[in-house]
Automatic annotation (TrEMBL):
Any single GO BP term: cold acclimation
Protein name: U6 snRNA-associated Sm-like protein LSm1
Source organism per UniProt: Kingdonia uniflora
Keywords for the protein's UniProt record, in alphabetical order: Cytoplasm, mRNA processing, Ribonucleoprotein, RNA-binding
Superkingdom classification of source: Eukaryota
InterPro entries: Lsm1, LSM_dom_sf, PTHR15588, Sm, Sm_dom_euk/arc
Keyword check for Ubl conjugation: no
Amino acid sequence: MSWSGGPDDIFLSTSLASYLDKKILVLLRDGRKLMGLLRSFDQFANAVLEGACERVIVGDLYCDIPLGLYIIRGENVVLIGELDLEREELPPHMTCVSAAEIKRAQKAERDASDLKGSMRKRMEFLDMD
């Protein structure tokens, strides 16, 4: 069995080149999710997104916060994937809200998590007796 492709074919199939000028989703190490058109990249997965936005999701609420032209440092990238423009991006029960509303929801979620953590510490203290 012979293979007629050269080394360039392997590079293109395993690189981001197939995503150029397509809408992609980038998951970052800190959990943020960015979407935009991939305009450029390098061997370190540094990437330039045009028309980028950050999708913030809290429960059943979401908001796409516009970022414009955005440069992503490759070491922060966990996952990159092409978005299928033919499919619905989110389940129908998700509700789009303003940036101010999603920030309030994030704060409420963070406060609830902090409270839960402090309650757990108090309970652990009581269990030591």
